[in-house]
Amino acid sequence: MAVNKSMHPRNRYKDRPPDFAFLASKYPDFRQHVNTNLIGGVSLNFKDPKAVRALTCTLLKEDFGLTIDIPLERLIPTVPLRLNYIHWVEDLIGHHASSEKKITRGIDIGTGASCIYPLLGATMNGWFFLATEVDDMCFNYAKKNVEQNNLSDLIKVVKVPQKTLLMDALKEESEIIYDFCMCNPPFFANQLEAKGINSRNAHRPPPSSVNTGGITEIMAEGGELEFVKRIIHDSLQLKQRLRWYSCMLGKKCSLAPLKEELRKQGVPKVAHTEFCQGRTMRWALAWSFYDDVTVPSPPCKKRKLEKTRKPLTFTVLEPIVKDLSQKLCSTGHPVSEGIYVVATWIENILTALQVHHKRVPSGKEEISVFLTAVVNSWLHTRRKKRERVRQLRELPRATEDALQSVDKDKTLSGEQSSTLSSEKVTQELEVKEPVAESTAITLVQSLSNDKEGMEQSNPEKMECESAQTGDEVPESDDTSLIDSGEKQCQTANVCDVSVLEEKTKKDKDFLFKCLLNVRREDNNFLVEMHWVEGDNRDLMNQLCTYLRNQIFRMEIS
To answer: Contact at 8 Å (CB) between 424 and 406?
Structure first.
């Protein structure tokens, strides 16, 4: 039997489908309808009405202790789908929310030969039922099923005239306030709809089970839409005689017009849901004229459960971690455990990439770092470096004398050094390179400021960060063009990335966010990256690949 993860949470068949093999070994009447394949698997032919009836009777006997008889000429209900409806009615009336034990009364409109809703409600919850039926055969079988299960004190089956719904059935019960009514109405308006000729989408697969039922059970004038509208008309006259009115629907297209009809009639409380069982979908609508009732939450629009996304992972072997630990100690860091070594190197790489990160609380024997990527700074890094070198070659170069004069003036004067050095360089450049005057002034000022900042920063940290990239600037045949001044200019271009980052922040806050975990796995160390939010999951995949490659390059270098 096919079951669905979107069934009602309390449905006993949601996570534990019926065991056909066990049921066949225990019930001989069910065994004769079970097919066994060569590898021992069992199956049931749901196109066979006798097999479907045997399954329904067997499940009611095994799981609820009920013994019923159903004629093949009448509707044979499926137990999991009917159980969904019972559980939703429990939600409507707050059966499990209230700790008080009170008498609960319900009405089943068109109970059918099986009388399944009253039998389940009375057996599971002790509810009192008024079950109505217009068909003589269904009435006789329903009365028999109630009596043979000794539930006559809880279930009253009454025969009503044709086209009678609620009004005539409640004439003799004028003083009783019912908690709910439930109904499985005839879905189709004619034989063509019942056969699916003009009511079923041609692209849908054919039904997986047989369609059983008498004329009064499966067809009515106007189909389910007009049938439920008649119940709505009765409810407008009865109003607070029932706390909740409800109906099950076989077509989703019937839900919207019925809700619109309730809105036009000014009904204050309306709820709807959907029932799932394998490939079978049903919908339900409920309404109330009471202000104190609680409306259950509607079903989620995304009925399909989202698959649990596996994190992106890579493993750092223990020998690599030992080498990384030695290199980390050489930079002045204290000796620490393996997970701290891996986490520290990753944080250094993220810092070089200008990826925002901070450590967050984590479990034992692991380190968690929350990442917020604002700019894609890890893609095509070698290409970007080559482009920066090419741009540096095209810039007018400052002379060695100019750079030496800048250093000399900066050591002699304090806060005014940058201004004086700029004036000196400007004077020299006016003589030697008057064409590139403005460009050279800007370049030298950037060099002096960046060089001063680099000298004040931690040289060990700079050495660590330069070791992380693992990418070398490709050599050129014209080595005379790349002098020491141009190499220092390379660091000045980092400010361009900062400007770009600030501009990106204004347009959008971030590219993506993720949680990075480092933990020990056996003798090695596992790095996991869990997606949190963002536009493109591929960016996290790229960053994960970049981190892995950089870790391995550090060990090789």
So the answer is: yes
